[in-house]
Amino acid sequence: MTITRMFKTTSTLLITESHLLLPIIWEGDLNLHSNEPLMRQSQFQNIILHGDTVFSLAIALVEKQEVEFTFINEFDTIYKRSVTLGDKIFVEYNMIIIDRHRKLEFLAYKNDRELVMEGTLLTTSENEVFER
Fold it and tell me: pTM of the predicted model, to two decimals?
């Protein structure tokens, strides 16, 4: 068994209207996240991206740097803060490689290192179950 650990940081991604609208239209949720008058009265004070959209974008930033990052077998996330238009997100991650299997521990940040999400992913380069 070969174990390798790598700590890395991704590039940043500027959140645009496309990042907000396309997932909302796909999911059919046009009444909450993008409802500006309603969201201005909420705890968020602004329109926000779905948490799952932020997760997808964060993992896409990691995938952009990791060539063999194919099958996600399991994931766990904790959402800490919201993300809105104009925010810049980036990810710090620790990739633990055990033979063909990978465990990704990550922290997603916005702007000046405000933590928005933390989580883990179990992945393989082949479509098989990760054995613990």
Answer: 0.84
